[in-house]
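Q: What residues go here?
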């Protein structure tokens, strides 16, 4: 009975060891690694990385919608333009006009049943661009949180300063009132 418990403990430890590295690496790093490993299509230069959300979803265990959202975020971070990232839609599951039986009308009907999917293309330096964008966003976020904290401290100090100055004015007023009462009590 003790050997079975030891075997179960060993299996649990082994399974935890296998999944622990995946959980310890942030999702954005895993996405960058996966895009880096994607081979370029044969029709484009070898400096471009092409990935579909379905591959990202199957590799990382995300839904296709989440994978598309992550790739859109990466596309935004890398930036577009002439040498930037881009995406296009392509039909999946439809027949071409040449391979469809019955000519063009059958191909059009088949293409109506085809699913549109996004194909993302990233330049060779996408990783450096994404990391630079991440640093800028992190700096802005830290600066904003520092600014909010600093403004709160300034408000608190100002409020205490106003309270203290008001208290000083009240005490000075009471002292002047007491001096006036004493002066009037002595006859002038």
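A:
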């Amino acid at each position: 009975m003790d050997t079975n418990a030891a075997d179960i403990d060993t299996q649990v430890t082994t399974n935890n060891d296998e999944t622990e590295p995946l959980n310890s690496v942030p999702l954005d790093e895993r996405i960058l690694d996966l895009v880096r490993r994607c081979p370029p299509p044969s029709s484009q230069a070898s400096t471009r990385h092409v990935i579909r959300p379905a591959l990202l979803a199957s590799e990382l265990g995300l839904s296709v919608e989440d994978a598309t959202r992550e790739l859109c975020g990466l596309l935004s971070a890398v930036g577009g333009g002439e040498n930037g990232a881009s995406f296009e839609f392509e039909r999946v599951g439809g027949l071409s006009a040449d391979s469809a039986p019955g000519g063009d009308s059958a191909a059009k009907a088949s293409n109506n049943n085809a699913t549109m999917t996004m194909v993302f293309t990233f330049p060779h330096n996408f990783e450096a661009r994404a990391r630079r964008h991440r640093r800028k966003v992190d700096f802005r976020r830290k600066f904003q949180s520092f600014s909010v904290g600093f403004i709160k401290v300034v408000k608190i100090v100002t409020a205490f300063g106003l309270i203290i100055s008001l208290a000083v004015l009240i005490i000075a007023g009471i002292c002047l009132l007491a001096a006036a009462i004493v002066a009037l009590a002595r006859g002038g």
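A: Context that may help when evaluating the design: The first helix runs from residue 2 to 24. Helices lie at 2-24, 27-37, 53-60, 64-78, 104-113, 126-186.
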